[in-house]
């Protein structure tokens, strides 16, 4: 079953998750316009101030308005997470589909490459990539995208495998349908629900990775605000500003929770099974 | 009745005995100090790769000389030294009866072997520092002579740190590969155990030449304490002493802990590469020196602790030149005018500020200050790692304007060489004027006890500061938080030292 927005919204968790994610997306698009102050403007007369009417979330160690930085940071944090998802989606889904059709050599090679990716730790690989290609979030998330691609590869392959060998696909081929037609018309609709669920969960996990990297100072181009970067700075000033980490931390937690809630709902409404049959598993992993 | 009396007497004896035992235990544990600090990159002074390591390496090794509170070389393993007439050889007189912690004698031949290892071992990182020494001879068990390539009266300073730390020849002859993890020296403490990346345990060395001044019986060195939890660690007793930043002083005091702010050799500076446009124009470089508000940096990033300085030495040190007190005082109007004179209208000059990930706030502050004089600055954060900064700034020399700092060196000439010398690590331009080099040479040729020495040295500092495109920002004192049961730490410019430090029983104050 193809995922439809209306079906998702009928589920309570799905509705809450989608609503929250839309809000976050709106923040990412219009956040800088809503910001009460310039998020980069320093004010040495207002360092580390607590929440007040002037600064609803207080100010940071350089006197910048925390709310404005949080709003401005939404775009960068989400775009970086999206970058990882798109890279993983392309690098995982395309070879996953092709591995079913292009013969054993391609299948064996892509499986081994994906196995190799699975062994690499996200953060260490991302740090290594930034050291090699330059310290930027784009480089770091490219690395993360590469490492999340096996998830897309495996779900795509697992969903495509039984379809590729089905009788109606055989019939379509016998009637002269091209491989592209078969993929588009018969295989992709079966693969899409699983990919949608994986996309939602990967978006959440990518956001955690983005926040972790920016928390560590990797990929940040100061003074651009990010949620992870704000969290790291606020932890250095816990004594004068004990509540400062709450806003960026909550935003990360709730956004990741919304992604996971959406993934759960998609799984429920599309009937994607968390556990594929043993037979399919064995064939897909072979 | 007599049985009752005997029972009471026996109980009394038992109570007194137990009390005595408890007292003895309390006394032993009270002299255990738990210190939170970075473990050295190597416990071998020959392969240790950062200047900061002297703080921990000096726990297990003694050096030929030792810097006093003001940074002046004084007796260490050597009780005295004398130069020959032309300053090309210096003979150190060792204290009699010295031994390493492995029981072997620390005599002139051991000193000779240890210093020569630093000169010849393939992976030695002391080769450059020891280049001034051409040979070492043991004249008799207590007299060792260092033959120099040229007159150099800085050798007693040079040998006060890692360079002059003496390693047991018996240990490094047997297995040089073991020294980085199992050091054998003759320092105030004997190495007991070491867990890499975690902790090291040391016990007092009763044969140390100055053992009478060391009260601590056992020192546990713990690494990796998170800065955000370090104060809680001291408060809970997990640590007794740890290093904090100026921003944490208020929090430490509020937690009922003691704070020692100790002047140190560390000076923050900007490494300017004058070989990279637009910094090839000296007028631009000079304008930048006036554009940075050093006091604001200290106030915002270090809680106002530290002093603005325009030279790579702290006030009170012999090299500190008072004539430079206002050398490049913050003057944005002057900076703007200088940039305009160089042909740069506001907004037309762009440069990149390079910084490591822990000093990001400083970079953001400097970026805004440069913006105020019309310079568009982009910040480049170098990822954490032991070699990334070297590749970007020191060896790669890709940084135009790098926020850096020197932890200082035992010899002021050595420090000037690192900061301003033509091959100096922090001199990314790799240029130095003949006048500066001549002045530096004159310092080397001037005995430390010559009345002219301070003037000659300070002159070299002035020439270095005026010549160099790089510029100093401010001092960075060593800030230690300690449990009140630990007595105040002694103030040494060069490093942490523990002579005279006592640890009272838990719950009491030193």
UniProtKB/TrEMBL annotation, chain B:
GO cellular component, one term: cell envelope
UniProt cross-references to InterPro entries, sorted A to Z: SBP_5, SBP_5_dom
Biological-process GO terms, alphabetical: peptide transport
Origin: domain of life: Bacteria
Principal localisation: other
Subcellular location: Cell envelope
Segment forming the signal sequence: 1-24
Domain Solute-binding protein family: 74-409
Family per similarity comment: Belongs to the bacterial solute-binding protein 5 family.
Record protein name field: Peptide ABC transporter permease
Organism from which the protein derives: Pseudonocardia halophobica
């Amino acid at each position: 079953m193809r995922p439809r927005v209306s079906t998702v919204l009928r589920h309570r968790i799905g509705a809450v998750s989608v609503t929250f994610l839309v809000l976050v997306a709106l923040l990412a698009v219009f956040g800088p316009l809503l910001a009460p102050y310039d998020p980069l403007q320093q004010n040495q007369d207002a360092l580390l101030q607590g929440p007040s009417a002037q600064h609803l979330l207080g100010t940071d160690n350089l006197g910048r308005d925390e709310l404005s930085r949080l709003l401005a940071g939404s775009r960068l944090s989400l775009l970086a997470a999206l970058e990882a998802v798109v890279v993983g989606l392309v690098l995982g889904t395309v070879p996953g589909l092709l591995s079913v059709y292009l013969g054993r050599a391609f299948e064996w090679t892509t499986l081994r490459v994906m196995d190799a990716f699975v062994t690499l730790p996200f953060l260490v690989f991302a740090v290594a990539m930034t050291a090699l290609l330059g310290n930027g979030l784009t480089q770091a998330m490219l690395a993360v995208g590469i490492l999340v691609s096996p998830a897309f590869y495996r779900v795509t392959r697992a969903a495509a495998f039984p379809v590729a060998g089905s009788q109606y696909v055989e019939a379509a081929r016998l009637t002269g349908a091209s491989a592209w037609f078969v993929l588009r018309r018969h295989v992709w609709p079966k693969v899409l629900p699983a990919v949608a669920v994986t996309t939602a969960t990967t978006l959440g996990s990518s956001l955690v990775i983005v926040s972790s990297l920016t928390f560590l100072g990797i990929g940040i181009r100061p003074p651009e605000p990010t949620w992870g970067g704000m969290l790291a700075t606020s932890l250095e000033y816990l004594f004068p500003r004990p509540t400062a980490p709450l806003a960026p931390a909550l935003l990360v937690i709730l956004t990741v929770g919304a992604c996971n809630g959406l993934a759960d709902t998609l799984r429920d409404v599309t009937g994607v099974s968390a556990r594929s049959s043993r037979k399919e598993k064995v064939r897909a992993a072979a | 009745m007599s049985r009752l009396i005997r029972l009471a007497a026996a109980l009394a004896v038992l109570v007194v005995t137990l009390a005595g035992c408890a007292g003895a235990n309390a006394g032993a544990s009270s002299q255990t100090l738990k210190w939170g600090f970075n473990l050295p990159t190597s416990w071998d002074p020959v392969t240790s790769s950062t200047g900061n390591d002297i703080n921990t390496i000096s726990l297990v090794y003694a050096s030929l000389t030792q810097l006093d509170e003001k940074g002046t070389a004084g007796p260490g393993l050597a009780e005295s030294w004398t130069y020959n007439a032309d300053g090309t050889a210096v003979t150190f007189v060792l204290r009699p009866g010295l031994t390493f912690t492995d029981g072997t004698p620390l005599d002139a031949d051991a000193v000779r072997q240890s210093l020569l290892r630093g000169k010849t071992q393939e992976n030695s990182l002391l080769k450059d520092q020891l280049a001034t020494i051409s040979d070492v001879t043991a004249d008799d068990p207590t007299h060792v002579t260092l033959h120099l390539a040229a007159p150099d009266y800085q050798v007693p300073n040079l040998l006060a740190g890692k360079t002059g730390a003496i390693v047991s020849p018996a240990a490094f002859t047997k297995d040089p590969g073991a020294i980085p993890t199992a050091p054998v020296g003759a320092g105030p403490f004997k190495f007991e155990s070491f867990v890499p990346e975690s902790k090291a345990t040391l016990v007092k060395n009763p044969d140390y030449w100055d053992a009478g001044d060391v009260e601590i019986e056992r020192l546990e060195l713990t690494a990796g304490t998170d800065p955000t939890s370090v104060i809680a660690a001291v408060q809970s007793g997990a640590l007794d002493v740890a290093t904090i930043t100026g921003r944490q002083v208020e929090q430490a005091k509020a937690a009922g802990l003691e704070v020692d702010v100790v002047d140190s050799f560390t000076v923050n500076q900007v490494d300017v590469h004058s070989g990279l446009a637009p910094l090839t124009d000296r007028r631009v470089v000079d304008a930048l020196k006036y554009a940075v508000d050093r006091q604001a940096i200290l106030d915002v990033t270090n809680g106002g602790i530290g002093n603005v300085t325009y030279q790579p030495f702290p006030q009170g040190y012999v090299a500190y030149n008072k004539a430079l007190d206002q050398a490049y005082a913050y003057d944005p109007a002057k900076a703007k005018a200088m940039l305009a004179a160089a042909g740069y209208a506001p907004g037309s000059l762009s440069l990149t500020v390079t910084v490591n990930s822990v000093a990001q706030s400083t970079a953001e502050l400097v970026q805004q200050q440069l913006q105020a004089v019309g310079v568009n600055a982009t910040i480049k954060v170098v990822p954490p790692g032991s070699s990334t900064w070297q590749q970007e700034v020191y060896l790669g020399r890709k940084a135009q304007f790098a926020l850096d700092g020197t932890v200082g060196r035992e010899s002021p000439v050595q420090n000037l060489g690192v900061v301003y010398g033509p091959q100096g690590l922090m001199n990314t331009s790799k240029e130095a004027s003949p006048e500066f080099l001549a002045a530096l040479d004159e310092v080397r040729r001037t005995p430390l006890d010559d009345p002219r020495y301070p003037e000659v040295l300070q002159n070299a500092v002035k020439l270095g500061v005026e010549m160099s495109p790089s510029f100093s920002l401010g001092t960075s004192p060593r800030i230690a938080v300690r449990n009140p049961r630990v007595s105040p730490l002694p103030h040494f410019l060069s490093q942490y030292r523990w002579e005279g430090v006592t640890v009272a029983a838990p719950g009491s104050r030193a």
